[in-house]
Write a structure and sequence with these properties.
heterodimer; A: 6-stranded antiparallel sheet; 7 helices; globular; disordered C terminus; B: mainly alpha
Amino acid sequence: MKMITAFGVACILIVPAFASAQTFTIPERVERLAAKARDSVNITLDGPLLQLAGQFLNSGKGDERAVKELVSKLKGIHVRTFEFDREGEYSDSDLDAIREQLKSPAWSRVLEARESGEHTQIFVKVGKSEVGGLVMLSAERKELSIIIIDGAIDLKQLSTLGGNFGIPSIPAASATSGGAARVAKDAAE
Amino acid sequence: MKALDEELRGALRRLQPPEGFADRVRQRVESEGRFARHQPTRATGAMRWALAATLVVAAGGGLWYRAEEQRRLQGEEAKRQVLLSLSIAGTKLKAIEMKVNHGEER
């Protein structure tokens, strides 16, 4: 009887812990795109690696202090970017398996923009008082970007980091060309 | 010739060793062996311990240094990846923001 009670208590404690600790899976289909891409970036950083990186970020340097602060609240980062020579090397449905992992009520789609064959989506994890995670899916004609940031994040702060640390910023002109973006600021899908 | 044979036979005949010969030889070997072996003194014992301790410290230090160096390299690489990924994310977010603003303006 005691054993059953202990097991029940353990289940009650463990199950929500697993449920809240969502780990993202990048589909094999997406990973295989690297072989077709001219350039690709593949970064996966889990909790312990982020903590380690945080120890090597200098609190004395302005930029790094901001990153250190930001990283201290993160649980994981996944970045996949692919640049192709030709159009049609991937399809928008390659991202469906990722979209499947971004269901409400935990996740909300805050932005959706479709224009001339490009599809951009931003999902945020709804936290108690702050954004608990961010996913950006950007499917352009010759470029595909998947950015998953798990953990509390300040979007304004993140936006200021673009193009810093000696990494060139993506030309804004390429992102803003074409027709008007249809913006869907709805809650969940 | 016969005399020579006799002489040789006499010289090479089997003789029994004197009484207690084997024991005396054994005792002699044992006593000489004991003297030949180095007797550890207090000083040489301490030196051995010091040498062993030095070796242990050196080996431990080497292992620690190697682990620390590996950790440093891992940390630097993780830092580089964090900066790269946040920079990509920030750039992308900024680009999307501009795209949306541009669309709303028109």
